[in-house]
Amino acid sequence: MLDLIYNETSGSGKCKKIIAKISEALKNRNIEHRLFPTKAKKHATELAKELSAEGSTDIIAVGGDGTVHEVLNGIDTEKVNFGIIPAGSGNDFIETAKIPLDPMKALEIILTREPKPTDYLDCAGVRGINIIATGIDVEILKRCAKFKVIKGKLQYLLSLIISLFKFEFYNFDTLIDGKREEKEALIVACGNGKVFGGGIQMCPEAQIDDGLMDFVICNKMKKSKIPSAFVKLMKGKILQEPFTEFSRQTHVEVCFDKKTTVNVDGELYEDLPFDVKIVNNELKMYRP
Fold first, then answer.
1. CATH number of domain containing 92
2. Model pLDDT, residue 153
């Protein structure tokens, strides 16, 4: 039995058409399934919790990164096999997981492959499958939310340009293996996945099954150099820059000098402690 949780509004409404096509394909193959549309923000998390409690073994998130994030935070990761069928405007994690963007091809993987162990991140009790970060990325996402007409990558690009002029660097301490260091940076990120923000390669060398997260800090630089730094980000070359610190960790704690918003897979959490751990060999996911 496949339980599919989907957001009809994902992808500017295209998810509704996709779920109908998926359901028809499953019926034609006599595969039992149930459809669960979400009705509000975080409803997908509630549905996933309820289905897990009922004993569901296969829960599929149909939508974008937001739906994936909510379902991940509701499933019993020790008992439920997790699947993703992309149907949203933002589908960053699937690039690292190598899940096809075509929904029908993604469905075929779920129907024909065995689930594989896949890492995820835990940030003070909030799960993230892709990237957890704060800094200029948060400023950009907050500005994106203010755009009502412009959507997609253009929305992100415009928000980025505005943020470059107004951003103030973050002051914080990192705590790794008992060693504390003071930092001032443009962005700090823990990556299980490689990209965020519609394709920005924040953690280009991340792997989703190595039991480690990629910890990346882009330290303070002259504001005039920030645009070129983002060009390097887009090209996946940020780790080669002298202002970048990179390491692989299992646990990272970052303490800020003021209340901070944390970006977990594109969802913003106010004043969430930036205390991130990798969770290895627990989640089973359908992927190539």
1. 3.40.50.10330
2. 63
